Amino acid sequence: MSLNNSSNIFLDSVPSNTNRFQVNVINENHESSAVANDNTDPPHYEETSFGDEAQKRLRISFRPGNQECYDNFLQSGETAKTDASFHAYDSHTNTYYLQTFGHNTMDAVPKIEYYRNTGSISGPKVNRPSLLEIHEQLAKNVAITPSSADRVANGDGIPGDEQAENKEDDQAGVVKFGWVKGVLVRCMLNIWGVMLFIRLSWIVGEAGIGLGVIIIGLSVVVTTLTGISMSAICTNGVVRGGGAYYLISRSLGPEFGGSIGLIFAFANAVAVAMYVVGFAETVVDLLKESDSMMVDPSNDIRIIGSITVVILLGISVAGMEWEAKAQVILLVILLIAIVNFFIGTVIPSNNEKKSRGFFNYQASIFAENFGPRFTKGEGFFSVFAIFFPAATGILAGANISGDLEDPQDAIPRGTMLAIFITTIAYLGVAICVGACVVRDATGNMNDTIISGMNCNGSAACGLGYDFSRCRHEPCQYGLMNNFQVMSMVSGFGPLITAGIFSATLSSALASLVSAPKVFQALCKDNIYKALQFFAKGYGKNNEPLRGYILTFVIAMAFILIAELNTIAPIISNFFLASYALINFSCFHASYAKSPGWRPAYGIYNMWVSLFGAVLCCAVMFVINWWAAVITYVIEFFLYVYVTYKKPDVNWGSSTQALSYVSALDNALELTTVEDHVKNFRPQCIVLTGGPMTRPALLDITHAFTKNSGLCICCEVFVGPRKLCVKEMNSGMAKKQAWLIKNKIKAFYAAVAADCFRDGVRSLLQASGLGRMKPNTLVIGYKKNWRKAPLTEIENYVGIIHDAFDFEIGVVIVRINQGFDISQVLQVQEELERLEQERLALEATIKDNECEEESGGIRGLFKKAGKLNITKTTPKKDGSINTIQSMHVGEFNQKLVEASTQFKKKQEKGTIDVWWLFDDGGLTLLIPYILTLRKKWKDCKLRIYVGGKINRIEEEKIAMASLLSKFRIKFADIHIIGDINIKPNKESWKVFEEMIEPYRLHESCKDLTTAEKLKRETPWKITDAELEAVKEKSYRQVRLNELLQERSRAANLIVLSLPVARKGSISDLLYMAWLEILTKNLPPVLLVRGNHKNVLTFYS
């Protein structure tokens, strides 16, 4: 690499890919630029400049080249100097700079370490500089000692990387497999099952060569489509251990993954028993021929099967390396057996083999065997159901994905090649055996054609043998009758027996390894908490020894039960269900259109994957309909269970992506629908602050918005913008999580603003999405308004005015104890902290006492130092805080009880609705919705409306008629005719005393003084204002008297909110109205709609 105008080349500590950066430090003058341009190749990408106060800049060109890279940091992490002697630490100003490309910027170049997950086994995760660190002004005069951020910028990792490095050292002895030994060998062994040697000839005899090829082809279509889908999923990110479970769970989520993972692991465990029993049956047949039976056939199978499983378990527990070697040996034996068969087809047949139906390759035999000849009870689908399990096994490599060097490359390559090779073998064996062996043969060498005998037209007849009696009586030989056709045809029969042993043992060994691996991955994710015990791994390879033992127990149990014929269809359906979900996972991920779905394996199509999923489901019913039903029932039960438990995982599944797409589409579609009064529902902004600080306010709002309307918990952060934004961002996720944990169907939103009113104004205008915008503002009553600063009162009343300006309804909720329990929460947090410190101290002392002889006093101080409790002063302060906290907790006991009053089921009683002013019906709709809730269903509505004394009955009948048209049930209607009379003197006196501190009393002063007071204290209540709205003030006081008289025992009071006309009613007078109106009452909802209809009696 040649560089102009630069003297140093710095190599990054981590080599990059095959690309080369060219870095030139160029002076700002034109001459230097010209020199650089003359001596360097033109860059392939546009020039990027980094300016700085040293009047230097870097020009970076990126072009293909040798495997060299650059960086401005040495491998030791020390910052390098440029020609201009640019230092990381300026010696004059002692300023600390973090450098990239030799310049004072914290911006880091792209590296893989930034994108790893925490705890990644492939390397340490490094935190890039945050946007705040880059965006904010660089701090000056900081310490010279490099900080953790310095290490990050230099690519040295983060504090605590030593643990990750040690973890990498621990991985040094881990055995990892490539795509051949890890995937190809395993898949070929699993697909080439015992079916190849003892059933394929019978299938050709039943279905014929033509339909036999179609059966094989249809099976291969299913496995190929599944392999393609699996390859796409595997190449869409790093694949960990767990095989099919991992692929499905990370694509479709824990619900699907957890359900299929359990039955897939169980299916593999039972498959061990199936394959071992197949091996044991072959051995028992050999013992029968040699007359060497131990007990009887059934018990001999159990004995041989048990011994075999113990041996296979020993190989598996010995380690994956030994298991892989055993698999390679078994594959060699299997390949020799297959080759032995093809060689046997060209060896000239003798008379004994001819009598058994083998005549080498004959066109007449091929033609005769080409068409089907199904026996009684058999058909295409029944024969297909028997063959299809032979084509399975494509997940054998994926099941040990955690033991592969590069699963993303190995699984697609090995699996697809295995499918291709095994398909060629199946087709070759089927065609060859169909062209060499007739369907029926007697085995009698004397059944030859005698001269003058009429030939029956069969292929055997034309070749000199008469097997016509097989039409009337059963024969023992031929494709239809003899399962040992391949042994007869082969060049050396015992090799076929060895092949059968190899096929069964290799499949059993693969299943014995797969089941624990999949089960361990499932248990590690803690989806089923009761199974956490089996998540532990041992040794360098994290071997699931506990899973091996469990698989061994399951396999032994089914071997001893010996009822595998019944359960075999269910196991086949379990595997097919896994195939179906893998296909559906690929389709679902593509259909969700998530930008994160970027598989490197591009040979797939989402509709083809969907077809594969449907095909798998259809094959399940073809194989065995009742087994398919059982599979679906079990999977559905597990799905419901996992969904109910809601495991705390987030894997970015396609289900989440599709949920977003569906929500977005529905929201957009909703914008095209005009609002209608019949579909009106309260959609509320609730000014709770942090949702946990005012739970009662949130509970009462949630009571009439749950499952019917939008609810947004809002918080306004007031203060310096930088601090507010930081605090706001840090708490967003926590507060939304609190809502989810407490099963409150609401959103959390927050804004940072210069003042509270500006923040609420922003929320009122910008909250919501499309038609899902708030139409009602819910706030708590400002109980301390008489002690609060004037600006707080102005903001409080101002947001009510703003809501009305935006045509948004307002609900003010008042309870006697107030809503804010933030002090109680602080006390609880303090008590919890002190309790944790106490427990930690006790544990430290206890451990020290146990280690007193070896550790002594020094050990105690060492442990105490870790817990920050070595000093006696914090302990003393903690004791004082504990006493104060307990006192505060006792003092606020009523407040705590009040904060939960709306969570409880309400006692039998009434909700009194004082519908004094027609606001469109919101005052009536909210209490009606409350009565529909389970907690409020025992509360009846009592309606109070104003009227004339001389028309009480008429107005009562009219109101009852209106409510019946609205279809709102009510217990009683009361017409109040004495609302407008003056309140009694005691009540009025209380009101006057309330507003006295805020009155101006300008009428008692001369004109000049009065004008001066108005200018100095414009917020005070003037005599003129009080006189102008005296009737309204009378009404509020009188209403409180009526409320005390009629609704004191109600569970809840819903009351029309008085409206303060802007510019006419001062803030303090309005607050006084609200205070006197709701004083000494049960919980009160002051409601005022936006005066647009929310109720209708039209259908």
Automatic annotation (TrEMBL):
Positions of the Amino acid permease/ SLC12A domain: 182-685
Family according to the record: Belongs to the SLC12A transporter family.
Keyword Transmembrane on entry: yes
Subcellular location: Cell membrane
Record membrane topology: Multi-pass membrane protein
GO biological process, one term: sodium ion homeostasis
Organism of this sequence: Piliocolobus tephrosceles (Ugandan red Colobus)
Name of protein: Solute carrier family 12 member 1
Keyword terms of this UniProt record: Cell membrane, Chloride, Coiled coil, Glycoprotein, Ion transport, Membrane, Phosphoprotein, Potassium, Potassium transport, Sodium, Sodium transport, Symport, Transmembrane, Transmembrane helix, Transport
UniProt-annotated stretches for the region Disordered: 31-53
The SLC12A transporter C-terminal domain, residue ranges: 694-1099
